[in-house]
UniProtKB/TrEMBL annotation:
It comes from Lysinibacillus contaminans. It holds the Pfam family SNF. The chain crosses the membrane at residues 12-29, 41-60, 99-124, 144-164, 176-204, 224-241, 253-276, 303-332, 344-365, 385-403, 424-446. Keywords: Membrane, Transmembrane, Transmembrane helix, Transport. It is a multi-pass membrane protein. Its main location: membrane. It comes from the Bacteria. CDD domains: SLC6sbd_Tyt1-Like. It is found in: Membrane. This is Transporter.
Length: 448
């Protein structure tokens, strides 16, 4: 591992950074609106089951590959099977996937920066401001979206250029605790609203009447998106990990935190939506249009909305750090260039590549790809195709290509877990994970 990349200073730092990679738009922006569109509790239950039975073993697999080789994503696959270079394309696909993900993720991050500034200034909750019109203005005005995109890109470049310990780890160590503290405040306020229990019931009571094959695919994609697995981001993160850290404990902590945040997000959002008789299936604009209208109807709504937007911003940034880091780590070993210069270069390229998605609600609104806007088409490609395929390839690689003793030794190193844990992991990765991913993917392809 290059000195340019460094190591985590502590197990806590690694867990918080990994949780930060997972807890982002997936848990706070995407899960609530997809849950709302898919009928509520049943979708959330399927998501949790997928996260435990498929997401957790996949998370462990990326940890094994990263720490076992002490290398970033592309090099890790090369080191394990140096005579089979084709497998390195799993890592390359991860780098490409992270780049594509950033081209629409950064756009939403820009919206959040704009909204956070307006929220802190108290300019969102105003009788003269219509939340839907404000959302349309922000997303539909090229200058506003591009300024937001630029600010979000600069924030990422600044943190990533500082390195693993001084940048990602330090940012995660203060952002993640603040995120949870703000969440608790918001959940308590949401649950004390009149009519809140209807939202709790919608979110937690499983009603399978609205579950379709597409909803199951969305739940699987949400599990991968929510844990940041499939693009080898956590291969890179775990390559900075010391050998005495327990991978099962670390992965379990990350999964627990991810499910907890997803749970808290539902409890913070759906009680508010139902208390004010709003539409839970509002789509991607749920957080930007529905919630401001709801917060505007409660005492101290400006304060709670500003807190929510800051929470949203923290989660989005900690998640985007991992996307940038896998790209930086992939090239820093090959190019004789400093981390600062490389990060700035990648930031410029991401910004330019994200412009079409940023303008897909304005000057490029008439451009469609298979009936979807540039933004939505990129989201679908990444979340519903590339992530499942990436996870399927990693599951095949770790079971059928990687040496069994290498997997077992790395999985159990620094851990009190024994043969039973390894056997369970191997059964899940051999029979459950690839079969479920394949069935869900085939079902999706048959629908199109």
């Amino acid at each position: 591992m290059s000195e340019k990349n460094g190591q985590w200073s502590s197990k806590l730092g690694f867990i918080l950074a990994s949780a930060g990679a997972a807890i982002g738009l997936g848990a706070i922006w995407k899960l609530p609106y997809v849950t709302g569109q898919s009928g509520g509790g049943a979708f959330f239950l399927i998501f949790v089951l997928f996260t435990l039975l498929i997401g957790l073993p996949m998370l462990l697999s990326e940890y094994i590959l990263g720490r076992g080789t002490q290398s970033e994503a592309v090099t890790a696959y090369k080191k394990i099977v140096p005579n089979k270079p084709t497998w390195a394309w799993i890592g390359r696909m991860g780098v490409i996937g992270c780049f594509l993900l950033l081209t629409f993720y950064s756009v939403v991050g820009g919206w959040i920066f704009i909204y956070s500034g307006l929220g802190v200034a108290g300019a969102i909750i105003d009788p003269a401001v219509n939340p839907a019109e404000l959302f349309d203005k922000i997303t539909g005005t090229p200058s506003i979206t591009l300024v937001g995109l630029a600010i979000f890109t600069l924030a990422n470049v600044f943190v990533i250029s500082l390195g693993v310990q001084n940048g990602i780890e330090k940012a995660s160590k203060w952002m993640m605790p603040l995120l949870f503290a703000i969440f608790i405040v918001l959940v308590i306020r949401a649950l004390t609203l009149d009519g809140a229990m209807a939202g709790v019931k919608f979110f937690l009571w499983p009603d399978f009447i609205h579950i379709t094959g597409r909803a199951v695919l969305e739940a699987l994609g949400q599990s991968f998106f929510g844990l940041a697995v499939g693009f080898s981001c956590l291969v890179t993160y775990s390559s900075y990990l010391k050998k005495d850290v327990s991978l099962p404990n670390s992965a379990g902590s990350v999964v627990l935190l991810t499910v907890l945040v997803s749970f808290l997000a539902g409890l913070a959002i759906f009680p508010v939506v139902f208390a004010f008789d709003l539409e839970p299936a509002s789509g991607p604009g749920l957080l930007f249009m529905v919630l401001p209208a709801a917060f505007g109807q409660m005492p101290f709504g400006e304060v709670f909305l500003a807190l929510f937007l800051l929470l949203f911003l923290f989660a989005t940034l900690t998640s985007s750090f991992s996307l940038y880091e896998i790209i930086v780590a992939a090239f820093i070993e090959k190019w004789n260039i400093s981390r600062v210069k490389l990060t700035m270069l990648i930031g410029v390229v991401v910004f330019l590549a994200a412009i079409p998605a940023a303008l897909s609600s304005s000057v490029l609104a008439d451009v469609s790809i298979f009936g979807k806007s540039i933004f939505d088409a990129t989201d679908f490609l990444v979340s519903n195709l590339m992530l499942p395929v990436g996870n399927l390839l990693i599951s095949i690689f770790i079971i059928h290509v990687v040496n069994k003793e290498f997997v077992k030794t790395e999985l159990l190193a620094g851990s009190k877990m024994g043969q039973g844990y390894y056997s369970t992991y191997r059964v899940l990765m051999t029979f459950i994970v690839p079969v479920v991913i394949t069935v869900v993917l085939l079902n999706m392809l048959l629908q199109y």
